[in-house]
Design a protein that fits this description.
The protein is α+β, with helices and mostly antiparallel strands. 31% of the residues lie in helices and 34% in strands. It has a domain of 130 residues: 3-Layer(aba) Sandwich (Aminopeptidase). The chain contains five helices and eight strands. Helix 1 packs across helix 3. It binds coenzyme A. Coenzyme A binds next to strand 5, helix 4 and helix 5.
């Protein structure tokens, strides 16, 4: 069962934030969070329009429940004053030969970026990965124009392992490469 112990973190704006695993009762607030995040519509593969199609309360509750009971899938939220500020996850490969790899995802509300929350969340994810019986490698894909995310990952020990050229095309006709990054779970 992928559940972490709740952790309190003090951010640079002196606000205390709780990092924890969501429960089914958080589903509505998680959905509201995702609506806000997709308003920016440029950091993820799914567009805001596509996201709307699968974002229902029932599906979100199921999703949270699935991650709760599956030891190879972790979702982590952070909150303060009853407001969800971030959503992050690790998912082990579904194929037997890729179970040792955890795909990492992270997002934070715009007003809460640059305050040390990303680093604190990544530390929690890495700690969980270290304790996981099968995980050996963490991996992620990030758009080449997303400098804050690339910096965060580098700070957390992630290294570029490859690049997919023009992997994403935006509505305005411009492209971004996808930088594939990894870190071995046990590296310092
Ligand atoms: C990427 C993201 C998770 C970073 O989280 P964050 O809370 O802002 O990061 P932190 O405040 O913990 O900063 C960690 C490091 O990242 C770097 N960083 C953060 N914001 C930065 C910025 N705007 N420009 C350059 N570097 C930045 C800094 O080096 C910082 O370390 P330092 O404080 O010791 O200098 C956040 O910006 C976000 O949610 N972005 C939108 C969603 C997204 O892009 N997700 C990743 C998709 S692959």
């Amino acid at each position: 069962m992928a559940v972490i112990e709740a952790k309190a973190v003090l951010l640079k704006n002196l606000k205390e934030v709780c990092i924890r695993t969501p429960v089914a009762e958080d589903a509505e607030r998680v959905l509201n969070y995702m609506k806000k995040i997709f308003e920016e519509d440029r950091f993820f593969l799914m567009t805001a329009e596509e996201a709307k199609e699968w974002q229902t309360l029932e599906k979100e509750q199921e999703h949270i429940q699935k991650y709760h009971t599956d030891e190879d899938k972790l979702i982590v939220i952070s909150e303060t004053d009853g407001r969800i500020l971030s959503l992050s996850s690790i998912e082990c490969g579904s194929r037997q030969r890729m179970r040792h790899i955890g795909q990492v995802g992270i997002s934070i509300l715009p007003d809460w970026r640059g305050l040390g929350l990303g680093k604190a969340i990544m530390e929690v994810l890495i700690e969980w990965a270290r304790a996981h019986p099968k995980l050996e490698k963490l991996a992620l894909g990030v758009w080449s124009g997303n400098k804050p995310a690339i910096r965060l990952y580098q700070k957390m020990g992630f290294i570029e392992e490859g690049r997919k050229i023009r992997e994403v095309k935006y509505a305005d006709g411009s492209y971004d490469d996808m930088i594939c990054m990894y870190r071995m779970v046990d590296s310092k």
